Amino acid sequence: MKWLPQVSSPSVRLDHCIAERSMPLDSIWSGGGVDTVWKNVQRQSLGIAMSRQDRGLTRLSRRTRNGFKNAALALHLAINVERRDSIAIRVTGGMGDHIVAVRFIRDLLSHFGHAKIDVYSVTGGMGWLYEPLPDVTFIEAPRRVFTWVTRRYILVLQLTHTVDLVHMSSAAAERWPALSAMLQSIAPYRKMFSHAIDAHPHLDFHPALVAQFQNVRRDTFLNHVSGVPFGGHQYPLPEDASLVQSLGLDHKPYITVHNSFSEESGRPRATRDYPFLDDVVKEVKAQLPDLPVVQVGVVGGTLSSADYNLSSKTTQPQITSVLANSSMHFDMEGGLVHIASCVGTPCCVVFGPTPIGYYAYPNNINIAPRVCGDCWSITLDWQKTCLLGAAEPPCMFTQPPKAVAHAALPHLRVLLSEKRRSA
To answer: pTM higher than 0.90, yes or no?
Structure first.
């Protein structure tokens, strides 16, 4: 069997590993390194014979950190994949990319009907996003493991800033003829973006530029490329309202703010960090003094304007609930803005390096940079180093906080008035 062209390691064939019964991963991984894994596999899968390719996988596993776990995972997946009814989708990137991807997968299932889908990603902590889709399983695994097991599936896709068809068997075309026809239609985009797909994420600005010329944004570009109808931004993320209730915020309006920079962390400020969010919120509070402010996020220095600091104190379902009950969320472009879009909360978003024409949600207050901007992905270290060599990226540091606050205040007052009437 010929494996994917991007495989640089010795060719590995796992066809012979298909057993007559499922093998739980725990039963084949009992410690002792990759040799123990292989012995357990042999013992439990009806006497699998070790081939030359198998021994190549063993040697490769020994040379890689945690390689024995990868080998065990690869074998477990290869043995348990239901070949006749399985699709593999590799999703890259962080929280925002996974939210865009999960909405696309939702639309794919809605449009083409039932299918069992395994989502592969190297990014941990994303499985909760896929829980509302009963036919989808999230698998956190290195790309090498994904490559090892890919041909066990009848259809394989990759979602980056476009949709890439990695592999489709004749069985997939027979089972899902409409889906097969749709996937053939992405061929022109595959040709157009081939270098960006191969270099991902370093040339991501190319599909972003094409999307903007075609008047499409990040949130819908996967649907645009594939022809799958877009099902909307709302998505039923798992929520946990216990924290909101314990703070007494479930029956009163408040706003949320995310500060992604912390002096205590010791790390340099990212180019897309907006340094004046505290001043923005102070100006909002000066106009609306009775409105509580809740700081959210995973990392970030404490903002003096925040009445509640929940940074690094929430689970993912809890932070979703906090955002869902917020009247407005203040942030830079990032994952929490994408979560807010799923639960219908408007955001005030300050843009800098990331292109506003590509990443902006239509219902948000999107603040464009006064100078520069849109340098996202042009250089390998764009997140760490300003393209101009400036210690303080002008796209973010020249944005007056009062201007940001006053752009949001009219919309916020309307939202608060609507909440009072509906209460």
So the answer is: no
